[in-house]
Amino acid sequence: MNLLKQRSVQTFFIIATYLFLAPYLPLDCHRSFYSISLFLKDILLWMLPFTVCTFIAHAISSFEKRALTFVFVLIAFEALSNLASVWYAFSCGHFAASSLHPLSSDSWNDDFSPLWRLPLTRPLWWTADKGSFLGLSLGLLAALRFPSLATPIARAKTFAEKISTRIFAKLIPLFLLGFITKLYQTNLLKKLGVQYADFLFWLIGALVIYIFVLFWIGSKGSLSICARNIRHLLPAGSVAFSSGCSLSTMPWTIEGSAKTLQTPELARAIIPATTNIQQIGDCIANTFLCFLLYVQFMGHAPSFSMWVSFSIVFVLARFATAAVLGGAIFVMLPIYETHLHFSPEMIAIILAFNVILDPIITSANVLANGALCRIFEMVWVRDRKTTTT
Questions:
Q1: Which position has the higher pLDDT, 101 or 15?
Q2: 287 and 335 in contact (C-beta within 8 Å)?
Q3: Are 323 and 153 a contacting pair, CB within 8 Å?
Q4: pTM of the shown model
Q5: DSSP string over 184-242
């Protein structure tokens, strides 16, 4: 019964049931599933700027003026570490894409369409990047100048969080079902499933290398200290792999990270602030797969300017996903569509991989956070020494 409560198990059961019954279902039934998924996606696109704005504003305003230097250094460190992982995935994607064959226009049947769509048209200016910068501005105003803004910001954030976690997060299996229907009806499911199985090994290899380098940097190049620090964090990584939740793993992450620090108390301040924001495994996995999907569907790599724009919004959105436990992917999907021009088929594939790879990604997030906790201590101590002198 506990397994049935896990969203990944629910999703697998629903998709497996659909694939078993698919040959016997009428066409309108398939189109109905697809219509529901597109409806949920359209609602998400309408909500995204508001959600991103309120979450970022609340995260910034909640710091107030307490330990302002520490807060800003930590935020900058989290943003830069996420950005570095995005561009690392971009480089790995270039390397892996050399063996990827672009899809020809006749690889799938594009006649499959929904029964209905949301009639409201979203304005072009109503996008995630606008919400990100507005949230950043409101948060800074509330923290530094107008503390009275914190209350309405908190109420707006609570409203958006309830919709995201109590409604959309529970609809992930249904949301994915419609797009899997689209892949099945257009003959893409089997073709991509076989081809992308090979790239999962590339992805796991890229995660292992990056996390090892983080531990190596934190040990200042000492392999023995590096191995010791990894050993301290392995219990947290194994708990994250089995539970699929970085937040519930936090006590083990704090305990393991504290053993790697010269000032163990820092772990209690850093890990809670970074657990759901500084998600290295998530950043690498999603941007690596985004790159490969873009190459395969578009026939060429995304331009440098496109990836710069995407990476900035992607990193800012990580601050917005901190409160969307179980539903963070819903914040990211519209960003893929807006900045990388993802089609419904591409959305379905990236969402399916997030469900399948969730234990690996969560474990990578926890291990990377532990490694980065030590690196942040090195940066913070050096910064404090520079300030005092």
A1: 15
A2: no
A3: no
A4: 0.71
A5: HHTT-HHHHHHHHHHHHHHHHHHHHHHHHHHHHHHTTT-HHHHHHHHHHHHHHHHHHHH
Question: What letter represents residue 283's amino acid?
Answer: C
Model pLDDT for residues 306-340, shown as the tens digit of each residue = 999 888 888 887 776 654 444 566 677 778 888 88
Alpha carbon 126 to chain centroid, angstroms? 21
| Calpha distance 262→345 (Å, rounded) | 49
Mean pLDDT of the chain: 79
* Number of other CB atoms surrounding residue 10 within 10 Å: 17
In single-letter form, the type of residue at position 213 comes to V
Question: If we measure between CA atoms, which residue out of 160, 115, 121, 146 comes closest to residue 320?
Answer: 160
Q: Which comes out higher in pLDDT, residue 255 or 388?
A: 255
18: nearest Cα among 39, 3, 37 = 37
Question: Any idea which residue has 């019964």 for tokens?
Answer: 1
> What's the start-to-end Cα distance of the chain, in Å?
60
The HSE-up count of residue 370 (CA atoms within 13 Å, CB side) is 33
- Angle between the 328-340 and 27-61 helix axes, to the nearest 10 degrees? 100
Q: Where are the alpha helices (DSSP H) in 26-108?
A: 27-61, 68-96
Q: Which domains does the chain have, with CATH numbers?
A: 3-388 (1.10.3860)
C-alpha span between 358 and 350 (Å, rounded): 12
- Residues 205-247: tens digit of each pLDDT: 899 999 999 999 988 888 999 999 999 888 888 877 765 667 6
**Residue showing tokens 């936090």:** 250
Give the residue-averaged pLDDT of 20-28.
91
What does the alpha-carbon distance between residue 294 and residue 346 come to, in Å, rounded to a whole number? 8
